[in-house]
Design a protein that fits this description.
9-stranded mixed beta sheet, single chain, 32% strand, two-stranded antiparallel ribbon, binds 1-O-pyrophosphono-5-O-phosphono-alpha-D-ribofuranose, binds uracil, 6 helices, alpha/beta, 209 residues
Amino acid sequence: MSKVTVCDHPLIQHKLRVIRDRNCGTKDFRMIVSEIAGLMCYEATRDLKLEDVEIDTPIARMTAKQLSGRKLAVVPILRAGLGMVEGMLQMIPAAKVGHIGLYRDPETLNPVEYYCKLPADCGEREVFVVDPMLATGGSACAALTMLKGHGCRHIRMLNIIAAPEGVARVQKEHPDVDIYVCAIDERLNDNGYIIPGLGDAGDRIFGTK
Ligand code: PRP
Ligand code: URA
């Protein structure tokens, strides 16, 4: 069963309060989503492997630590996931970036695929899927299936807000994928929006409504 980590750091929770507020405008919303992504990245990379290396400081020789193991990739689910990429890359600048384009059909709430471009060696990388919202879990599960179809086997997912329904669906369909969230809200409404949530993440990041 996949592990669910709620990133409950006070700075994350404070920033989450700001973007939930309906009066938070596009500029601040976009900036804070990126900041939250950076802080979530810090939590989601806590178990990355390190190795010892010998280096010379200006004063002495020493054994220091550096990242080892698999290289990294960040994969946003378009559109809203784009808002989390810059914050992630500030923490892991050498990561490659793939893109998966999915939107929810407003009637059926089923995901519709329209784009997929991944790093050629994504199967060897530790992949961090980013999307601010995990609602029914349809988009997340479709993205995870696409990634696995391209050979990815080491995948983590970062969502700012999740509904219990979405978490349960990912855990059922992709039990190998660990999930990092800042909050698990109450439930979905009849239109598949998270209550209380923050509204439509894509529209709020890009100012399209
Ligand atoms: C939103 C969100 C997720 C999806 C979550 O994207 O960014 O990708 O909905 O809902 P689900 O868990 O029920 O699939 P949306 O389809 O609104 O597309 P957009 O990012 O282009 O606005
Ligand atoms: N997508 C969003 O952007 N917000 C929700 O609450 C649910 C899906």
